[in-house]
Amino acid sequence: MSLINKNSALNALLEASLGTVTTQENLDEATIRNGVDAGSMVLLGNPNHTNVRATLVGRPATIKVNANIGTSPMLNNTEREMKKLASAEEAGAHTIMDLSTAGDLDGIRTAMLTKSPLPMGTVPLYALAKKRMDADCDPTDFEHQEFLDEIESQAKQGVDFMTLHVGVTRRAAELAETGGRVLGIVSRGGSITARWMARRKEENPLLTHWGEVIEICREHNVTLSLGDGMRPGAGADAGDAAQWEEVIVLADAGRQAREAGCQVMIEGPGHVPMNLVAEHIATMKRIVDNAPLYVLGPLVTDAAPGYDHITAAIGGSIAAMSGADFLCYVTPAEHLTLPDAADVREGVMASRIAAQAAEVALGRPEAVARDREISAARKTLEWDRLTAAALDPLMVEHRRGEHKTEKECAMCGKFCAIRMLDGTL
Amino acid sequence: MSLINKNSALNALLEASLGTVTTQENLDEATIRNGVDAGSMVLLGNPNHTNVRATLVGRPATIKVNANIGTSPMLNNTEREMKKLASAEEAGAHTIMDLSTAGDLDGIRTAMLTKSPLPMGTVPLYALAKKRMDADCDPTDFEHQEFLDEIESQAKQGVDFMTLHVGVTRRAAELAETGGRVLGIVSRGGSITARWMARRKEENPLLTHWGEVIEICREHNVTLSLGDGMRPGAGADAGDAAQWEEVIVLADAGRQAREAGCQVMIEGPGHVPMNLVAEHIATMKRIVDNAPLYVLGPLVTDAAPGYDHITAAIGGSIAAMSGADFLCYVTPAEHLTLPDAADVREGVMASRIAAQAAEVALGRPEAVARDREISAARKTLEWDRLTAAALDPLMVEHRRGEHKTEKECAMCGKFCAIRMLDGTL
Fold first, then answer.
1. What is the CATH number of the domain that holds B320?
2. Considering only CB atoms, which chain A residues are within 8 Å of B300?
């Protein structure tokens, strides 16, 4: 197979961006071409998204971080979301997803696409459900063609990747319902799809029209992000039959898409106890033919609402060390409320820390060099040098505060362990 | 051997607290007695610390969290530290360490011991060095007997555990200096000891007088926390010869102490890349005869100053899953400035999250039940029930904010995945 030759939009993007991407990733052209062609890497970028920053996801490219933003029915303020977009960019997110479910969705989406060069993802199903809910209809009161039309419309607007829950089959939904889950289905896309199937007693509309979906997305180089509608929403549910049924279906849908020239990522599990994270990631990678893995968390405990950026950093770092390629951030607001701009910043930083820790563990030269640079600056108490190499220089400046002109930090002062032995004290 | 029979203060503490501790830990009396007698668990509590809460550390007891507080030369304010003490207690720390290096150290220490029932630890060497520095002398200008006197004085004040850097031998210091470390010695106690040895060309004073130290500490049931003066302060330095030389010396010092009836914990590494954490912990536990392991971090990347509570939560959770018993918190202020009360709270929470995640991974019934309770409350959207089971109920209340009267949270509102399928929408 040759995925690139079947996708002229991708081919053009690759030609235009290869110089930049090889430098950014410190990879040679052949590695990138071969990886993208085999589907172990994807190059995000829809030609309709003007000025999009072509972004490579998948080993051996660096681990990427996504920030979810967007309105909700209770907090519907476009300006607030545009601030969150700016916050995500400033904090160093590689991509964003607009998950808006309230307001003028087309307007918000096109404003974000115009504003930001970061590849942007969406969940097209939200737009369908919102229209029906606004009209006081059942959220699932839509036909197959409307789903395809929404996907095509967003592809033409420039959306770079789309979460499509093609693996939420009737069998998977039944397994989730009857399999003794503590928390059932916790994915919004998953639950809407399950509701649609239950009402109509029909199979997942994406699955029955998968060839058409692929064709639309291939044409605009929209990368398919095969959604984890069956992801466990509780540690107790991790690794059950519903979860793996979906992975198996996603693997097959992914193969079809790649054979037709469409790029594919696979979305990964949600709440997973620490002892299972590495094996889940390795098993998923195996089943999905080494496609790039895009994980939400995983959250390694359910008990820390208000701190799920930390539970996700623990799970995300282990996942990334074990094969995950793309970390979807989780903010401190998760499970409680819609994040604000400060939450977005904290979420991105937590995911970047997880990625850095994983890349150090994997021995990636750039990550190791960054850690070494910081350590060398600590040895000589060169604060400007340390600040420049830190993941968040602004935070370092802020925390040093009124003591920033001192040689030692305010934690130890003249008790500094470094100075105790460097001959200066 | 029978440690308990050689330590009458411990024996009395055990008799007085066994009822409470068996309930708290959900362990039977024989397990606790045998563990304490064998040294795989320690029961913290100095009879001179009135109203001390006897606290069990070591498998199979629950994982404990320590909060470091105390003044520094640049931020010397006793009231601030008493607020941090209150913050640590409120956040759920099991122990505190007073690491003050400025002000009236005896006054601060006794005030904290009077105020708090939490077992309290110190580093007696700080008091010695501070006195000399206040007198414009070299910080290491002290004699053996003064060190023993300081330990005895603090033991009589009621200090429950003391960090003593007995493993900083001349050989270890030489290995740290000549072994190609990026960052040398980063422990304050380690660097002061190395300086003392270098100036006097003598072996570590604790090591040469170890029997006397043991005798003082046994008498007051002060648990020896054998300090990691050679801990790596950079990921690049992790696992070097200096680090392991110290562990080997600590293991021997620990055996001597236990044989004499004195309780012992071993302090663990600082900066360690993720891929090495589990093996470092397992190797340490093996070398030190399964003594309780008290770890600082480990910090899995050097590159995140301002967020080291997160890098420590990643390393701490892996360490605790791998055998560590006691997590010393790290706050967002680490490496930059002295923490304030808010930092203390955040640091304790991050360590409690790491402990909870590890205990879930280990299948500890109480931790698994807590996660399940939260998940069950999520399923039925019972917010009061969820809040009560959360690690930080105050944070949950705070973040739900103005939307706390709504059925769904403000992240999804009517798009709630749970409600989409529960028949109520």
1. 3.20.20.540
2. 317, 357, 360-361
